[in-house]
## 1
Amino acid sequence: MSGYERFVRRVVPYTPGEQPQIKDKIKLNTNENPYPPSPKVEQALKQMEMDSMRMYPDPAASDLVEAIADYYHVKPSQVFVGVGSDDVLAMSFLTFFNSDKPIIFPDITYSFYDVWADVFRIPYETKPLTQDFEIDIEDYKTENGGIIFPNPNAPTGAQLPIAGIEEIVAANPDVAVIVDEAYVDFGAESALSLVGKYDNLLVVQTMSKSRSMAGMRIGWAIGNEKMIGYLNDVKYSFNSYTMNRTSIVMGVEAIKDDVYFEQTRKKIIATRERTKEQLRELGFVFPDSKSNFIFASHPKYEAKKLFEALKEKHIFVRYFDKPRIDNYLRITIGTDEEMERLFEFLKNYMR
Amino acid sequence: MSGYERFVRRVVPYTPGEQPQIKDKIKLNTNENPYPPSPKVEQALKQMEMDSMRMYPDPAASDLVEAIADYYHVKPSQVFVGVGSDDVLAMSFLTFFNSDKPIIFPDITYSFYDVWADVFRIPYETKPLTQDFEIDIEDYKTENGGIIFPNPNAPTGAQLPIAGIEEIVAANPDVAVIVDEAYVDFGAESALSLVGKYDNLLVVQTMSKSRSMAGMRIGWAIGNEKMIGYLNDVKYSFNSYTMNRTSIVMGVEAIKDDVYFEQTRKKIIATRERTKEQLRELGFVFPDSKSNFIFASHPKYEAKKLFEALKEKHIFVRYFDKPRIDNYLRITIGTDEEMERLFEFLKNYMR
């Protein structure tokens, strides 16, 4: 081992879902939106003035921050933006989770939380979901250094009702509570309504799913002005200009085109509800999903084998080889046609 | 103070240069390129297929990594990319500077180094430049936890010859040595030629200056495969997808258009050399710059007052209110016309 290697931060990184390069495929493995972004996003991109590229972008990304603030009826000083909600969450861990006590999150959840805790050397404890994959609120009333959970949860898709979220936030006034709402636009109730009431609540959202912009990496946090100020201080101690010019321009249009947003998310919700019926008919069981995916298990068919068989036919879903969930598949909601092809395959497979 | 605030990471953030929103201005304050990016960058952007935006970008940004590797004749596994060289440097601090001993860098240098050290709680020591603003190599032969310096240095523009860099790298086999080459394309000698010889050397570059792409935030590190592997592990523990789809597509074209790159950087070098002559005629003194800026002082005119007077006429340069350099102005090289307007002003001011 070379000398310098003794001082390397050793980590076990997060593994993102596969991005297969095959042309003819059905990609239901990374919770992307099956529909393209608003046509106004394309217009804005194609009209971009190229000379400006030589200049640094606005470090505060003010146009984007203001568009988000307008949309959610908060002050621009309550909005923090980043390179996808992953960047926003990483910055939030670094900013708010500096206690000696462990932060807490569910045992089954977004698998990046323990990775961030590890890279920043933050102690953590996981709290087991109930047998029905629900968060037990009492678990979040113990002493801790901070709390984070997704709502709806991933990869289960299950929602914690707003009253439960408020109970957790209210019980923990002395730590930051982060609600990761990556999937909230598909039918769950947002905790944004609580931001005015609690100064320790941070709500994190993204354009990757409901606004079809995973390729552009745009996420944000909304919270009390003071919290956002702390986040910005850390961001400006890391990278002054995180949002490039194309992200700012495209992000503004994506958030402004509310009509398109409502259309696509309603289409996905409708497809999800039909998918639930069809999966049920085939004998699958799953928590009731309020997200753009369904976390399904079949009492007779092994998930891992099914995952492999689907993959062979170029139908990609996500499988997690982890305790408690190793017999589940996370299936992203695609177009009706894509889901139809999935069902055809499943019917054949189970015949 | 609210309870959660006790656990907030308190930092004093980096202050980026002003981005004035005035239309008619001469902007010589943030070392941007006065020429637009290659026309091929625009073409590629305008031809982007919008449906792909709904999907995550390639987490490895392979197209961009390969284009950079091709250009510099290294293996793709020796290239790490990030959201500007600031992101690359932040990740490098986090990855390699984990010793209890202080890292070292010059007292007059890029003012983000101490900010990164502070945010990650890395001990550091600065080594004074000589009176002529040169790095004293002997200073970098003491025990340390890592070394970083820019070449050419910022904001001085002075170059450390390659033999000096090699002496520092060779004297420090047990720590990572980072050479920050943000401005190297304007005439300094790159340390890339040493990467094959030393496994602890990391060379960091950017598209922001010489490739006119500050607005897109694209930077990279080149080093030993193992170093790049460690960097990637930390990056994948922070944000899987840092480079968005537009960055990857535009970055590839910017690096491939070598003809345009050579043209613009030669134009800037020529303007810089003329600028040196004219500044000298006006009585300014400055270290010999190998960058796209000149760090100039005048024995008779106070830098701060000159800075304010220029600003009033919408000519923006950079002034640092810091020990040893508080009578200097950092003047970015613009077009010949822009520099002409600067000289006109200076001649009048000094009449």
Note: The first helix of chain B runs from residue 39 to 46.
## 2
Amino acid sequence: MKDINDLLSLFRPDSAEEESIRKTVDFVFEKIVYYCRENNIDAEPVLVGSVAKGTNLRDGDIDIFVRFEKKYPRAKMEKLGLSIGHFVLENGKEKYAEHPYVTGFIDGKKVDIVPSYRMLPGENILSSVDRTPLHTEYVKSKLSLEGKDEVRKLKLFMKHIGVYGSDARTLGFSGYICELLIINTGNFIKTIEMFATMRGKLIIGDPQYTEVFQSPAIVIDPTDSTRNAAAAISLENLSRMKFCSRLYLNGKLPEYNQSRGGRKKDKKERGTTLRVFRVKKPDILDDILYPQALRFKNAIWGIMERNDLRPISWEICMQDHIDVIIESENKVVPALKTHRGPPVDEPSSIDFYNKWMNMEISRGPYILGDRIYVDLLRQQKSISDVVREGLKKINIGKNIDDQKETMEIFDPYDPGRDSCALDLFYSKFIFQVHPPEKTSRNTRSS
Amino acid sequence: MKDINDLLSLFRPDSAEEESIRKTVDFVFEKIVYYCRENNIDAEPVLVGSVAKGTNLRDGDIDIFVRFEKKYPRAKMEKLGLSIGHFVLENGKEKYAEHPYVTGFIDGKKVDIVPSYRMLPGENILSSVDRTPLHTEYVKSKLSLEGKDEVRKLKLFMKHIGVYGSDARTLGFSGYICELLIINTGNFIKTIEMFATMRGKLIIGDPQYTEVFQSPAIVIDPTDSTRNAAAAISLENLSRMKFCSRLYLNGKLPEYNQSRGGRKKDKKERGTTLRVFRVKKPDILDDILYPQALRFKNAIWGIMERNDLRPISWEICMQDHIDVIIESENKVVPALKTHRGPPVDEPSSIDFYNKWMNMEISRGPYILGDRIYVDLLRQQKSISDVVREGLKKINIGKNIDDQKETMEIFDPYDPGRDSCALDLFYSKFIFQVHPPEKTSRNTRSS
């Protein structure tokens, strides 16, 4: 990859951007204070997120929270929050994370205005966004000016290998985790050295707090010692971070290389079968949709497995549609089915025998080990038939269940067919390769 | 099956046969005693086996041991044993089990003359044949006249379902085990009831002796409490005995039904691939050869498994040749090979990456879980090529290694090709189906 310092100078906001951010924040703050005073609302604006902490990259979002007195019931607070948001952002759109919030653009900068409650460190959290201001305070108090750029380098490194972001799709490292890592190790290179030599889990925090967690990565939140701030990080992403850190220190971490990934190869080269399962993409946040897409994939995978189609690998791409691609060894259900009956110790083994002795079967009943078996022949159904039939009986979640009826199943190599999932499929690399589209804002918590 | 009492009257030796056996035994005894006296050998004949115990079936063998004083060294004893055997059996042939012995025919009855040492119960056994006279004494002392016919019924039942015989091929119940079962339960039907309701292992004997054994069937030898007399019995055969006992008590145990087994079916019905691996059959005892045939099968099976040919089932038939038949899901090695590298925690994962980054591969290197992988493409070799290549590196045992060069590999459905292994393959049933040939004498120990 490029020199990390060159990357930093490319992606660090320049003074013009910093000035523009400052103006936007001032403008938003004034309007919120004005609206609250006029309407007698006990709340104030607070700048949070990477801008507040000085760890933002070029063209980042501006996150401004409106902190309400805890006397407001949740519904009331959310309603007031939205009205403030719309007052500030003239063409703002409502989105829904833990609370509804308003997002819009000022001077070409994306601004989110998010309602929350006033919290002190150690107080019981009402919802996870309420933590964000505490995180902001903590990082501001711990991070030096140089530390901020070290965080930026770490974020750029993680973006390069595709593990930056704690959303449901990425399952990677959040900005807050990057900040905690730099606070802990001191700088970028020490963090990389830590990952390069790490064995097993990532664990940061007092053992009395860390030992209750099972995840591959455990980083105790300094503002709440009962919380694992690294819970989102998947084993794969921790592995990618370790491996790429090792490569980086050896001077061998590559640029993302299109000639290795992204090729639409001739399927015959692999001798396998590829199928795309496509449903319409409902208009909801990726963070809510992606886990459902994953359940959708798991349902199809399970059906294929139970029918001996022998699935091998998969990808999910959510662009205009939800495309699940699954590669399998078999194109049709194998005729032979070795059907396992009960152990001979069970009286029901006799029922199994009586049933199959009266049927036209391929072989048996016979005994292997301590059980009775028969060899049956089944119809050699196509992947498409088996999956359509199987999905009827499986409840995936309303958003996707509604789309089952219009699901398309196709071979991505068929003339006129294509899928971004196929590109992902052939892009598999030590980096996590993200879908080509610009995804919508995934998550609100830091 | 037929009524067990009808079977008994069919297969119990009639009085003419009993008279003929008596005459033969007297004749053999006289000749042995004469030879020993003339040659000053300290040994005497003893009648052992099922004839001695009165549990023999029609047309059974006559087993006569020559018991030597322990002063004779093994080589001397064996040499004298053979000379006695040849003196008695004019056209006798030498066979080799634990000691060499002589087998031949007198008046159409097969007679084995086997050398052994004089032993008392509890004495350290010099070789396992030395136990046979002790077994004979024990059973004679415990079994009533009625008990003898109960043993015969049990043997006939076990022959019917194919689990009678403790040879390396059958791995079933020996005659001695049948006798011990009847001595234990009292009669045939109680033995069947015991198996029909048994859960888990067959265990007979004091727990202090049985608990040291791991086999599916444990029956402590009353003449040697450190020995499991049922060690040969396989889990399958114990299961068959339980299951068929259950069926028998329900009046549902069938005759062996050719219309269910033994069909040479159209291979296309199963959508699988069948291959016969044929080598010449060396002229040695089945008990020595069969374990090697099994190793031969295991070697081929392992090669097929490692090459993702996905073997499903197998049979071995030893008639004129050793024929191993293996059914597999794949006819050729699949092109795609998902090649697993080291865990990313290991520095060697970098070597793996460097190696494959310079190669033309299908996909990767990529990370799954905590390891690095690549997808490779291989040549889609045939079963025959892969197995021939793989067997070169595997040592199976001299008798079969010598035959590898001339091994034939063929599809049993090819015109002009056939194999008794294919008949066995389609005969798979709750009974153990034995190869169609008359096998040679398998074993000498009871």
Note: Confidence is low (pLDDT under 50) at residues 438-446 of chain B.
